[in-house]
């Protein structure tokens, strides 16, 4: 693939050199973690600090997947509002889950602060922008629910959202000041560095091809011929899940998230567009999301084609969205284009599975993976250390493949096309 189609605006920090790829030699580990993204590295960090011996195995390079290629929006909460979570999970678990969801952005920003991570960030909030009256009513309902729980949130009218975004076409929206933005590649690299410093071993380009069960242990085999033994295995591959655990890949729908970045904006334009540095996601069926980078580029993303991109034209829908929101950017060069893969579940909730004792699988970021997986990694590490399922915010559920999964991608592609057409009429 030409480099122009895999060239994110994000960059690893200078401290990234402190991380060295390392593979355990012999002995029995407490845990092998398959997948070196935010979920796997957060789990490794907290498990190592709890005194566990940990090995992370990643099929590629750290930061090469969606953890390093996402939009860097750190958003607390889940796709569902607090009242729905309490109704769905019951009062005790539901309220605990609401508290967990409220804390996910804190997990990221507290770590950056406490560990002095070299990660560019701004924590001035996230705006959910409403382009229809229906979306504005939903925003008001969300605002009411979180406000009653003491969250620092605010309902925005047309004037306020126009001033905060500089964009056209919004009727109002909702501001969640708990949120913010980071450089996700820097964050992922720094997670690897501090996890390694805590004692976790992290090996790149070690694709796991087989799991075997022995008496009280798991045997983990890699494509390169390495074999490790561990008391527990955590599958943290998310959208890159393959057939390693039968049926798991069929529980998620992997989607491509495409992004574009302008050249650094001139000062007069940068002062008009997102002057407060907030992140934005809109209310369209096929939503777009955007923010400014540390060097004043406008970074905008959204769903892309299901197949791998073949030309710059595959990002054209994002360029049209950019000019719809900001006509003043006509003629500003789009300098970078890239994409990553995200995992969605049919119920829009993360799934935790433990089909056999000591084998834990986590799947489904739902577009909020930076905060969600950072916080969930700590809980999974606590579970590994204690075997207490109460440490897990989500219930352990059976692996249930999506019916007719092989045809799901075709259906999703058709749905995206249909929704994009509907969105076009709702200008």
TrEMBL record:
Keywords: Oxidoreductase. The keyword Metal-binding does not apply. InterPro entries: FAD-dep_OxRdtase, FAD/NAD-bd_sf. It holds the Pfam family DAO. Residues 30-382 form the FAD dependent oxidoreductase domain. One of its GO terms (cellular component) is cytoplasm. Gene3D superfamilies: D-Amino Acid Oxidase, subunit A, domain 2, FAD/NAD(P)-binding domain. One of its GO terms (molecular function) is oxidoreductase activity. Transmembrane segments: none annotated. This is FAD-binding oxidoreductase.
